[in-house]
Each structure stands twice: as structure tokens, then as C-alpha cells.
């Protein structure tokens, strides 16, 4: 059997080591639930990840994921989150930066080639630009897709729908015609008044069930 090592819980020593190495690049560092999270300046992300990768006693040499978070009430509405793994020390670390849709984030493809795919996905879903990515195209949605579907202000129905036209022998795009009218559901009673026109509601239903 292959022995699986348990993940080593991040320590205060690792926190202090990160603080000493990153210096002014570091905006915030916190240790919570055994995980170390760092918040850094947007323009410093390349150098921060290089230090975390190349410092021998850290060796965070695996980029596991890059993802986005949308906070539409903020001026810099997006967080970009990097998850790193040290195979040598069996440690994980999370690095976060803030940006908006106008200011690009430096690409880290030169450090971690797999970042090319992750950055494309973050661009596609959130609209975050990555400066230096050699192939920043959509990756999950169609090339003609409008908008970025993981933004919190993106409509649930989308903007366009597509279908195959037999007469034109091609796929055509059309404005969404599906309407999602707001309905106010009453969840206090499972039997009465849940929807307008419910046959269980009203005097007629009361009489059928022995009501006055």
C-alpha cells in the first residue's frame, strides 16, 4: 500500500517566513483553520509567486488553480485567487489580489505554464484581463458569447440564445425570448396560497374540505 501523508497544518513559523520574504508586497496575512492566506498588491503577483516557488524552504512549485470572486459593491470588484501546493513540504497556500475590469493582472504563465488555461477561464467567466498571456481567448463559452457569466450582475437567462436553422443550414444567434417574471412564493403554508389560482386556495376549496 502507498502511504498518504496528511497535509501539514500551516504554522505561525510559515506565516512569519512569508512576511519576512514578501515585505512590502504583502498587504495582509492571516492564519485561519490551519490554512495560510496572503493578500498582495496586484502589480506584485508575479514576483510574489516567484519567491514562493523558488525559496527552497517553501518550494510552492505547483499551481493548483486560479479563480475569481466578484464583489460588485467594491471599486475593485474582483478578487483573483491563486492556490499553490508544495509537494516537498506537503503545504498549501492561498494568494489573493484585488482588481477591476480595466486594470490587467500580470500573467504568471512564465512561472507556471498551466496558468495559461486558468487565466483564460478567469477572463472568460469574470472578464479579468491578464497582461502577458499569449492566448487570452474564451475557453468555456462560445466565441460569440456576450458578457461574463460568473459576474453577479449577469442575467440568469443570458443575453442571446442559439439554435440550428434548417433553412439557413447554420447556427443562428437570437435575443433571449425566455421571460423570468418574478413570483412571490408564500412558504408559510404548504397547501394554501402558494401560487395565484391554486385550486386548494379560496372558499371553494374550503367547502370541499369541510370548511364553512
Concise structural overview:
The chain has about 210 residues and is an alpha/beta fold.
Low-confidence spans: 1-8
Distance between the termini: 73 Å
> Can you identify the CATH superfamily of the domain at 12-143?
NADH:ubiquinone oxidoreductase Nqo5 subunit
Average pLDDT? 83
Shape: elongated
Total number of helices: 4
CATH topology of the domain at 12-143: Beta Polymerase, domain 2
| Radius of gyration from the alpha-carbon trace, in angstroms | 25 Å
| CATH architecture title of the domain at 12-143 | 2-Layer Sandwich
- Largest beta sheet: what is the strand line-up? 1-2-5-4-3
Helix content class? 10-25%
Count the beta strands: 9
What oligomerization state is this entry in? Answer: single chain
Q: Quote the beta fraction.
A: 25-35%
The helix-and-strand class reads alpha/beta
Q: What is the H-and-E element order?
A: HEEHEEEEHEEEH
Amino acid at each position: 500500500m502507498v502511504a498518504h501523508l496528511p497535509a501539514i497544518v500551516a504554522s505561525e513559523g510559515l506565516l512569519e517566513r512569508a512576511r519576512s520574504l514578501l515585505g512590502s508586497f504583502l498587504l495582509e496575512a492571516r492564519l485561519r483553520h490551519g490554512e495560510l492566506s496572503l493578500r498582495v498588491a496586484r502589480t506584485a503577483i508575479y514576483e510574489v509567486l516567484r519567491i514562493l516557488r523558488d525559496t527552497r524552504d517553501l518550494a510552492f512549485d505547483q499551481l493548483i488553480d486560479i479563480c475569481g470572486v466578484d464583489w460588485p459593491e467594491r471599486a475593485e470588484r474582483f478578487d483573483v485567487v491563486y492556490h499553490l501546493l508544495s509537494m516537498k513540504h506537503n503545504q498549501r497556500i492561498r494568494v489573493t489580489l484585488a482588481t477591476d475590469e480595466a486594470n490587467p493582472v500580470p500573467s504568471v504563465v512564465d512561472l507556471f505554464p498551466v496558468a495559461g488555461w486558468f487565466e483564460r477561464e478567469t477572463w472568460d467567466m469574470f472578464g479579468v484581463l491578464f497582461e502577458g498571456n499569449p492566448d487570452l481567448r474564451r475557453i468555456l463559452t462560445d466565441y460569440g458569447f456576450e458578457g461574463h457569466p460568473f459576474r453577479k450582475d449577469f442575467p440568469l437567462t443570458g443575453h442571446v440564445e442559439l439554435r440550428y436553422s434548417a433553412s439557413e443550414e447554420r447556427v443562428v444567434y437570437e435575443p433571449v425570448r425566455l421571460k423570468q417574471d418574478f413570483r412571490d412564493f408564500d412558504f408559510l403554508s404548504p397547501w394554501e396560497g402558494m401560487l395565484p389560482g391554486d385550486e386548494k386556495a379560496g372558499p371553494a376549496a374550503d367547502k370541499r374540505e369541510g370548511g364553512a
